[in-house]
Amino acid sequence: MERILRSQKMAEIVLLPVRHHSPACAYHVKRMIDRLRPGVILVEGPDNADPLIPVMVHEDTKAPFAIYYSYHDQAGLISQEKEHYKCYYPFLDYSPELAAFRAGKELGIETAFIDLSYGDILAASREGRGLLRAEEEKSNYNDDYLLSRNEYLRQLCEKTGLRSFDEFWEKYFELNGIEEESECWFGNLLTYCALARENTPPELMEEDGCLARERHMARRIREYAERPETADGIVAAVTGGFHTPGLKALLEEMPENGTGAEKVPEKDQGVYLMPYSMEAADALNGYASGMPFPGFYQRIWQGLQETETPYADGVLDMIVTAGKETRRKEGYLSTYDEICACAMAEGLAQLRGKRQPGAYELLDAVLASFVKGEYNIATDAPMRFLRKAMTGNEVGALCRQADVPPIIHDFQEQCRRFGIKTGSTLEAEATLSIFANPRHRFYSMFLNRMNYLKTAFARKIKGPNLQLKRDRNLMREIWKYKWSVQVNSALIEVSVYGATVEEAAVSLVKEALKKEIGARESALLLTEVFEMGLTEQLQPVYDRVHELMLGDTDFYSLAEAVKSLLMMEELAGLYDSRMAFGELIHIGCRKLISLLPAMAKIKDEDLNACMNALKLLYQVTGREGEDFAREREDYYDVLEKMTLDTEIHPGLNGCIHGILYGSGREDAGETEAVCRGYLEGTREQLFSTARFFRGLFFTARDLVFIGEQFIRMLDDFFGQVGQEEFMELLPELRMAFTYFTPREIDKIAGAAAGLHGKSGRDILQRKEIYPDWYAYGKELDAYVRGKMQRKG
Amino acid sequence: MEQKFIKPPVEVRYREELEALKANDTGNRPENWQMSPRAVRTFILGSSKPLVCGGKEYIIEKKYFGNDALVERCIVTLAGNRGLMLVGEPGTAKTMLSELLSAAVSGVSTNTIQGTAGTTEDMIKYSWNYALLLAKGPSREALVPSPLYVGMEKGILTRFEEITRTPAEIQDSLISVLSDKVLNVPELGDEGFLFARPGFNVIGTANTRDKGVNEMSSALKRRFNFETVMPVREASMEKRIIVNEVNRLAEESHISVQADEDVAEILASTYHELREGVSSHGHRIDKPSSVMSTAEAVSVYYQAMITGYYYGDGTLSMDSLVQTLVGAVSKENKDDLEKVRGYFNTVIRDKSSKEGGLWKEYYEARKWLK
Lengths: 792, 370
Fold this sequence. Notes:
The complex is a heterodimer of chains A (792) and B (370).
Chain A: E1 2-4, E2 12-18, H1 23-36, E3 40-46, H2 53-56, E4 65-72, E5 84-91, H3 96-107, E6 110-115, H4 118-124, H5 145-148, H6 151-160, H7 165-175, H8 182-198, H9 202-207, H10 210-226, E7 234-240, H11 244-253, E8 269-275, H12 278-281, H13 294-306, H14 310-330, H15 335-351, H16 359-370, H17 381-391, H18 406-418, E9 428-432, H19 438-452, E10 458-462, E11 477-481, H20 485-494, H21 501-514, H22 519-532, H23 535-551, H24 555-575, H25 582-595, H26 607-621, H27 629-644, H28 650-662, H29 668-679, H30 683-700, H31 709-720, H32 723-737, H33 742-755, H34 760-764, H35 771-791
Parallel strand pairs in A: 2-7, 3-6, 3-7
Antiparallel strand pairs in A: 1-2, 4-5, 4-8, 9-11, 10-11
Helix pairs in contact in A: 1-3, 1-8, 10-11, 13-14, 14-15, 14-16, 14-17, 15-16, 16-17, 21-23, 22-23, 22-24, 23-25, 24-25, 24-26, 26-28, 27-28, 28-30, 29-31, 30-32
Chain B: H1 10-13, H2 15-24, H3 37-45, E1 51-53, E2 56-58, H4 68-79, E3 83-88, H5 94-106, E4 112-114, H6 121-124, E5 126-128, H7 130-136, E6 143-145, H8 147-154, E7 157-161, H9 168-171, H10 174-180, E8 182-184, E9 193-195, E10 201-207, H11 218-222, E11 224-229, H12 235-252, H13 261-276, H14 294-311, H15 318-329, H16 334-355, H17 357-364
Parallel strand pairs in B: 3-10, 3-11, 4-7, 7-10
Antiparallel strand pairs in B: 1-2, 5-6, 8-9
Helix pairs in contact in B: 2-3, 3-4, 3-5, 12-13, 12-14, 14-15, 15-17, 16-17
């Protein structure tokens, strides 16, 4: 705690250093405010969120919730790309900032945020630093990284024998902290923060936007302190401990009326409250800047108001919870195990010099006492249950007065338009005749857009799937949808991208276009845009696909893209699109043929994809008219060349020979000769015959039915392999025969049996069953069943 | 210290440190413990503050590398009502940890049952001196106590090495002793009840992955707290262990050679990468099936070192290091050698071309991989 004493012009300023999310800190902040009764409470946080404060402290609002900040860089202040940015500022019951606001409400004290707005912070940060760091999926406003990651701290942990900053913090500030006097506690924290700051290079602070923020905060604090109505009171400023020394220096030295750093226009920024969950707040769930074990510390926070030993009680609670869950799900664990775990936690606390056992003793106790046998995935269930309990499962709620971004209004408007009820959280179903009924097509577009925004609002149960290229013959879509608070949260998250669902989808598509993707992904995107009915976006996406197809050299990616395009060309009439896909298909086709010669020596796992691509090319180049005449010639030339490669993959070889046979460039005799080559080759080549057959049957299964040469060859082949080898080849052979219809297989079997002097029927060799035998059996069955039932 | 044994017990080797710790110990001692739990922790995990005893300063060195929290859990378990079971792959210093714990807690690490497939129940409980039994009849005098019996009688720790090698029904003879803390000797009649004194507990060590181990019964498992000892996960720490241990072995055998840091680093990274299946440069490596433990790396280094000392020019050559490595990895499976060869031909080759020097020599010694 730092005091800047009253001067003629200014009220006394008290700087309260805090760590975001800390029960002890929230406790001391509340006590300090109670004692000081300041005239105004200022809290670190972007000041454009001031209008949200009444909602945050409303009695119907339940933590955890988060302030969502968004910024659309339309002015290009951050980069030329003019991108969208967003970040979260989560609040839990034990966040000192929230405790300060709540204390303010209770005592009737004015409260306000004092930091730069989110857009301005971004503008003040160097690329890739501070809130512009790209490593995290969810950027967090109140990241403690300056306090928790530095060389000084690493040495401190090593010296005190503690595992991490979080354990260090718990031992010295939480466990010991709740019994200390508030002044003393803030004093200790300030010492730690000052040392952490000394070990952070000033350039780093400048790059992170930290110094610009401090200048702004100092100016705001000074403004409040100079107001006549607070002049004879106290101004309390609750800020991250790392900033406190900087603020003090600025407040004591700063010349009056420094220039403002705000330059980001208000209209490009959004700020909303959204419900948050404990899971999202947990640092251990991959959000690097959260705090570990929010559920556990929530329990401690509640305990702080009730008992003398919140930690011991909380640890006991968690042990019992994890124990109960283990007993229920794993079927072992006795009360004695729980007693041992408690004793272990107590013992470890004593050994480690902690007043009460904390989170780390709890984890150690459950690990030692609950896990039986070697610790691995099979035995770690108790630890999983404990972790879950320590994370907590609470989800926050907002009061009715909370403002929502325009995208939610648009969502509700659209729901009204299509008669979707959002009041209930029950799942409902909608059947849409998308091609017959224009309204249904719009309905489907809306749901597809919601899906694209990842809102988890609706899912398609049935209907054409353009991404997987399945069920294209279906004329109707069946959707299931369900509204929940999470849908609103998800919409708030994308609200930066636009004021309506359509706008947001369009912006996200544009964003996706900028990413490094291949032809396959771009064609998939085209299908999505197609389904979402974003007609204006079709052209840019189309252009991008064009560009990527020219640049992509991945054979399979191109083949997939061509396949998607072909499908869209077929469906264009139904979806009422006027795009000309023909040209793209042409380009793709030419590129595929040019890449083809390199594909001769593929790996086994690529065989399927490669065969499909060859078949696709066969279909495309086989189209009527002169459009593809040149490609057709090239295609067959390349195929013929490929067959001359002696190291060609046998499956592919078969596939190519099938195509050549189908196109009339090769007669059955030639194909047969190649096949015989494998059959009569060395032992290893003989085994390749199965793969050769698989390829051949994929493209030209009718070969088998002309004459009996092929069946004879198959028969020879089976004659040559032993039983064990046959078992090894069986999967490959099964694959080969899946291309035949059951009737065809029957025919082949009949012909094969003929070679051995039997008829097709003989193979089945089932004795006929006379009707009276069957009747007798049935009777017997019923009799036995009756007897058994009577006996019970 | 006069050395008369190949490997003196821990309490002899660290006698002075233990005395210094006891003299400076101010914490509460559980009954019959030689020192407080906190002093036991310091003994095993070391302390940077020197201790003064008898006018001499002692720096307590760190003896167990790896997981500090695990050591703390072990100490608390021993002070409680349950036994301590250390499980894990071979060569992860389970036995060393159990020796250190018993030496610090009870002052003696030799009260040990060595479990084998041939261990019988009387080796665990008690047997008889038959001459005395015939002469005097069943009496305490004629009874030959087992380490378990001694532990209960004196209130000290009993170590049970390789518990899973003994047949499951023999292991189970521990169950009632551990829960009731009493051993009944029916032959002695009314006086045949041995009640355990405070300070008694059991530390078991067990391999989970080796061939020839028996599963423990759930009833026995319930009476132990399990601690899984993991192999060292950092190559730098592994190197430190190799250097420390090799120097200690050399000192004990009066060999005046010190371990070479660079060689230890090469060996540590070889063991580390083969165990993890991925190299520091991100190559994927086929993992050998035999155990690539740190203890194994120490013995490979030491053996190569003494080969150089007795048969060579006194220094360790990369040739002899690779030769010893061959012996160490090709114990169980012939394919392992192939995997190590593959490792040399990819990872070591790259490193030798980048780093040169010793790495190059190491790579050239691959000719012995056969």
